Fold this protein.
Amino acid sequence: MKKQSNDQILYSATDLVNFLGCHHATFLDVEALTGDIGKVEPSDFQQLLIKKGLDHEVAYLQRLKDEGKTVVEIPKGNLLDRANLTLDAMKSGPDVIYQAVLFRSPWQGYADFLIKCDTPSSLGDFSYEVLDTKLARTAEPKHIIQLCVYSELLMPLQDLRPANMYLFLGNQEKHQFRVTDFFYYYTRAKGRFESHLQ
């Protein structure tokens, strides 16, 4: 969770995953926003995992470039600027958008990659699907929830729900999942989370 300067609270896929694992974790996240308790800093081991995860992501980016894919990289900056740059990139139609920022208040998402596919949408004779990189060797439920959040945030940008979503895992395997197989569970879980916070 993140509080904006206008006191609006934004939610992320991590917040939903935390809620599904433990409602008390959500309580602690809310308390951290008010300043009543501090956020826990990542341990040295967690920081190492973050670095290894970033290395894995960058290596996959290089692999896509080596395959001759056209890539637009979204630079760092504030949320709205990055979200607008992501939409502009989608309209221009590159093969890959790296570090895409998806935003529809109160939800925000930072997708590792948007991958162009040949399904027509409001963008033209193409659309985009989400791919995230993970160090894990098998797909986990939390990864699927994260992909669902990003896929839903992608929908209004192209007036189309993506058919598929992908994980590129630490064992160098790419896995494809159909969004419809998980979307009903995801929307119910998201509804419970939002109701819990009201």
Notes: The longest strand covers residues 107-117.
